[in-house]
């Protein structure tokens, strides 16, 4: 969103894949797939090699012994073993991959959940040919928390959910049992689901999907990356390093799972004024339909209200952003309704196109 922002153009050292690999390093992930999905070894092997080089252990869960052997899941351990935890641990001392075989294919979903909980893996990636869930409009439902999942399961079945009831109920049980997150995706989408912000399927989490807080020093690399994305996509205007530092100093982040920065915004005070500007508002594509922008605006408005400000405003040249702010309680005003210092050193070429919006807080 183009309400302010950003940084000198140039390379960005912070990468999506690097972020996720950093999160996975030294941890154990589980990938679960029935035989026919796991047979695509050419799809999985590059992902497994990346994780192995990253010092991430992987437990491969399947009902197909041959597919597990093809992926180097040695030793192969029976899921029904009474000492599965110790056996998997010892297996991972010898190999970064261990295969767990579910003998009863009819009980595959329930056994996947049981094995993942018994091992206490950091993440379960559930692979099905249908991939992630769709929303009622046919778009991707990229993120679902436990409360929302319960609603989906107990409401009248919708298309795309009715035929996935068994899988979804086991995912719900896994989250309630203590698993932090489950990814549901296609075999071809595993790399994107694990290593990109956009993802390819649906991410299920136990906790509410977003929390908004002030940016901390360790968040700034990710915030810088988001701002660069916003510039490249035309939603954010280029700003000087000085202005960027001001944005960081007054920045807020929307964090998914408490760590993934899914959106940013800044509440810029004006000296001697009873108003502030919401600037640099931008959310990752994957979360456009998840209300991230609304959460950010609500948090910044509440902070401004607590600070005794009478109003907040935002400026944009994008119609979609105008509609977003109007949905969150803003109304359009002429440029001369804003403090004149807003327009000092403002890009004259943008002025004829700029749209101004304000929200009263009193």
Brief overview, please?
The longest helix is centred in the C-terminal third of the chain and has 15 residues. With 362 residues, the protein is α/β, with parallel strands linked by helices.
Describe the overall structure.
With 362 residues, this protein is an alpha/beta fold. The protein folds into 2 domains: 190 residues, Carbamate kinase; 150 residues, Gcn5-related N-acetyltransferase (GNAT) (Aminopeptidase, 3-Layer(aba) Sandwich), CATH 3.40.630.30. Helix content is 35%, strand content 22%. An 8-stranded mixed beta sheet has the order 3-4-2-1-5-7-8-6, sandwiched between helices. A hairpin with a 3-residue loop joins strand 10 and strand 11. It is elongated and about 70 Å long.
Topology:
Layout: H1 16-24, E1 28-33, H2 35-38, H3 41-53, E2 57-62, H4 65-70, E3 76-78, H5 84-94, E4 97-101, H6 108-119, E5 123-127, E6 143-145, H7 146-154, H8 165-176, E7 181-185, H9 190-195, E8 202-205, E9 211-214, H10 220-232, H11 241-249, E10 251-256, E11 260-269, E12 275-283, H12 292-306, E13 311-316, H13 319-327, E14 331-333, E15 355-360
Parallel strand pairs: 1-2, 1-5, 2-4, 3-4, 5-7, 6-8, 12-13
Antiparallel strand pairs: 7-8, 9-10, 10-11, 11-12, 13-15, 14-15
Helix pairs in contact: 6-8, 7-8
């Amino acid at each position: 969103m183009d309400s302010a922002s950003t940084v000198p153009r140039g390379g960005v050292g912070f990468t999506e894949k690097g972020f996720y690999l950093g999160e996975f390093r030294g941890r154990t992930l589980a990938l679960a797939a029935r035989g026919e999905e796991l047979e695509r070894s050419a799809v999985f092997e590059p992902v497994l090699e990346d994780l192995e080089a990253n010092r991430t252990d992987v437990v491969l869960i399947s009902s197909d012994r041959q597919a597990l052997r093809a992926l180097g899941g040695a030793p192969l351990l029976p899921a029904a073993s009474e000492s599965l935890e110790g056996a998997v641990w010892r297996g991972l001392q010898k190999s970064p991959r261990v295969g767990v075989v579910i003998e009863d294919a009819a009980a595959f979903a329930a056994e996947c959940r049981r094995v993942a909980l018994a091992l206490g893996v950091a993440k379960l990636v559930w692979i099905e040919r249908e991939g992630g869930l769709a929303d009622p409009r046919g778009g991707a439902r990229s993120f679902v928390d436990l409360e929302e999942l319960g609603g989906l399961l107990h409401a009248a079945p919708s298309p795309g959910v009715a035929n996935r009831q068994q899988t979804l109920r086991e995912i719900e049980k896994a989250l309630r049992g203590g698993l932090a997150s489950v990814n549901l995706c296609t075999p071809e989408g595993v790399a994107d689901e694990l290593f990109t912000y956009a993802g390819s399927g649906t991410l299920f989490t136990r906790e509410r999907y977003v929390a908004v807080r002030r940016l901390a020093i360790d968040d700034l690399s990710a915030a810088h990356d988001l701002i660069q994305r916003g510039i490249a996509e035309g939603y954010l205007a280029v700003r000087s390093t000085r202005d960027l530092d001001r944005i960081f100093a007054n920045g807020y982040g929307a964090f998914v799972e408490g760590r993934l920065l899914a959106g940013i915004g800044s509440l810029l005070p004006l000296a001697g004024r009873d108003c502030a500007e919401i600037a640099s508002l931008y959310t990752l594509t994957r979360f456009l339909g998840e209300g991230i922008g609304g959460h950010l605006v609500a948090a910044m408005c509440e902070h401004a209200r607590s600070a005794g400000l009478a109003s907040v405003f935002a400026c944009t040249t994008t119609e979609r952003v105008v509609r977003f702010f109007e949905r969150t309680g803003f109304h359009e005003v002429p440029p001369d309704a804003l403090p004149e210092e807003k327009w000092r050193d403002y890009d004259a070429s943008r002025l004829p196109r700029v749209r101004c919006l304000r929200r009263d807080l009193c």
